[in-house]
Amino acid sequence: MAFRNPSPDEIKAFLLRIRTIAVVGLSRDPDRPSYSVAMYLQNNGYKIVPVRPGGGEILGEKVYERLHEVPFKIDVVDHFRRATQVGGHIDEAIALKLPAVWMQEGVVDEAAAERARKAGLFVVMDRCMLKEHRKAGLSNSRPPKAG
């Protein structure tokens, strides 16, 4: 059976529920899509967690080399890696029992998506989180504070 993304209502409910987004492959280059999407999400109240080699900071947030190094709760892992490289990151998210994975536009790995679904994760593939956020009518809204 081919992968099917959650419905627009399910995606909207998900975007309203999450707070912390780990962005795997977040670029330091402001001209790259990962940077502009992460900045948009940050400006809409989400905590962004850059995950990539090299340390330092991106968008004012500490960079972690691997998901397992992040010392606090992650609600979703947003992937900006090539489809051929995303499977390992999905497997790490599964091993860490993270609740959700999101693969950006152009990132399609049916096998990794199926592994994540079977492990109970909420999975979105080949969709832009920024575009879905806007489509859901959530632009310039802030998620409720964790409490």
Topology at a glance:
Blueprint: H1 8-17, E1 20-24, H2 33-43, E2 47-51, E3 57-58, E4 61-62, E5 76-79, H3 83-95, E6 100-103, H4 110-118, E7 122-124, H5 129-135
Helix pairs in contact: 3-4
Helix content: 25-40%
Helix tally equals 5
What's the CATH topology name?
Answer: Rossmann fold
Q: Tally the beta strands.
A: 7
Low-confidence stretches: none
- From the coordinates shown, what is the CATH architecture? 3-Layer(aba) Sandwich
Specify the overall morphology.
globular
Content of β-strand: 15-25%
Helix/sheet category: alpha/beta
If you compute it from the alpha carbons, what radius of gyration comes out, rounded to the nearest whole angstrom? Answer: 14 Å
What is the spatial order of strands in the main beta sheet?
Answer: 2-1-5-6-7
The total tally of domains equals 1
Name the CATH class.
Alpha Beta
Biggest sheet statistics:
5 strands, parallel
Order of helices and strands: HEHEEEEHEHEH
CATH superfamily: NAD(P)-binding Rossmann-like Domain
What is the average per-residue confidence, as pLDDT, rounded to a whole number?
A: 94
Determine the N-to-C terminus distance.
Answer: 39 Å
